[in-house]
Amino acid sequence: MAERVATGDRQARIAPVGAVELAVVADSFNRMLDALVRAEAELVASARLSAIGRVASGVAHEINNPIAIIRGYVKTMRQEAESPALREELQILDEEAAACQRIAEELLVYVRSPAMEPMPVEAAELLGEAAERCRLPAEEPGAPPLIVEAEPAQICVDPLRIRQVLVNLVTNAREATEGAEPVIVRGSLRGAGYRIEVLDRGKGLSDEAREHLFEPFFTTRRDGTGLGLAVCYGLVTAHGGTIQAEPRPEGGARFVIDLPGVVVDGEEPEARERA
Fold it and tell me: What's the mean per-residue pLDDT of the chain?
């Protein structure tokens, strides 16, 4: 079996063994192979994302400056245009160029290690502020309600970056949800860390979508750029945290952010329970 694995057969596993002593060895060997397969898959995914990031960085850098020049000329032409129809058309050109510029800027945010400015903030307030930014004006009829359930805690994070992540996730969740089912933003203590969840009752995520969800340019939305979740991934990992997506029972999606070692206020929950 070891020889088969050495030749590249990662599906090889030892069948159940009758002898107790050998059964223990066989079980350990199989668990080692499972861990090896997972590690190799993570390594391949990391290498693929790194390669995509290098290409994206070069593309974004090369097109950002020409787009800025184009927008400058378009704005000058708008000021000099005598026809209202021409000014309107130039306005459309400027808006489309701005969209291209935004994509280039998001690419650069994704591929670069963003500068973090962590500071103590109240987690419940941070989640509430992020959710408030996602509320529609006067909550348009048919918009899914937004519920925030955050356990109070003083956490040390970059509030601007975490708010950016939450606004992106909540916006996606509300767009995916139809009807009266609420979108839930939940925060809870996890020892010395803090967990943030965004839950919706949309169409959910297929296994294929989950596999590529945080890769740049992958999107399930017709008008999406495929960069929002990739940027979220970069900002969360820059905090030393993890972000993952999984289906919810009875439909919908659940995004989970774990930020380890960020609690700075008072005792950890275990200490309070012992007291």
Answer: 83
